[in-house]
Amino acid sequence: xxxxxxxxxxxxxxxxxxxxxxxxxxxxxxxxxxxxxxxxxxxxxxxxxxxxxxxxxxxxxxxxxxxxxxxxxxxxxxxxxxxxxxxxxxxxxxxxxxxxxxxxxxxxxxxxxxxxxxxxxxxxxxxxxxxxxxxxxxxxxxxxxxxxxxxxxxxxxxxxxxxxxxxxxxxxxxxxxxxxxxxxxxxxxxxxxxxxxxxxxxxxxxxxxxxxxxxxxxxxxxxxxxxxxxxxxxxxxxxxxxxxxxxxxxxxxxxxxxxxxxxxxxxxxxxxxxxxxxxxxxxxxxxxxxxxxxxxxxxxxxxxxxxxxxxxxxxxxxxxxxxxxxxxxxxxxxxxxxxxxxx
Length: 343
Prior knowledge:
7-stranded mixed sheet; 2 domains; disordered C terminus; globular; 9 helices; alpha+beta; 6-stranded mixed sheet; single chain; 15 strands
């Protein structure tokens, strides 16, 4: 096709409508926070701090890192939807793919995304996606207005780094919630604890290998390894390779070989029966936990079986990794089965 001789017309998407589409991609809070932390790891951060502050309808969530940071041009580029071509070749350590994670993860939880960043040798800079402004103007425009000093000075002690701030948390807290509402506060704190547990599991290999330190409310997060590698009674099977992916199976010890504390910890968030199955990693980052990918049903007599699958990011297309990578609500295809798999 010779596109030089064809008629064309601009079909620019409506900003307010497209933003609503981004909001509907379907992240839960834990997956959304993990997507932001992916960016921090890709930026070579060594320390990452997750924090939340209950203030009723004015509550906020922050993710701070000491990565390489961004100057003005790099920050604006990073805040553009589709900042990277998903077909571009990536570093093996790059946990991104579509250039949408920062935006879609944030919009799924809040109406205001503030990103403050500092690159070594540059002054700190920030820009804001304010979805109320986008809805009023119908323009793809970042905006900048005064933000609290607590945010402005968050990077003062760091040579470089980035602070992601979520405010107007309408998908987490009902609008106009009073600070004194103990019921909503309790639910908010429960969600924050789920985030902590999810980060402990999702990034456990990074933490164990001392590539990063993760903090939640100032406390260092300990890794949750699903395979109980430190237990002598854990049975490990030989590693197998297929299509540049690696697979290794484990049978975890029976309860009688574990202390009560280790047994309780090893069952994870959903209990022993629900934690059985495949654990799929992309670049050492856990993207699917405890699922048989449609190959088997979860049964009581399989509850000690957990299988590790390692994928390089060059296999994203084969495994149909989507914007959210693989999450509990995702649909993926197991290579070589030609069968649609719900995970």
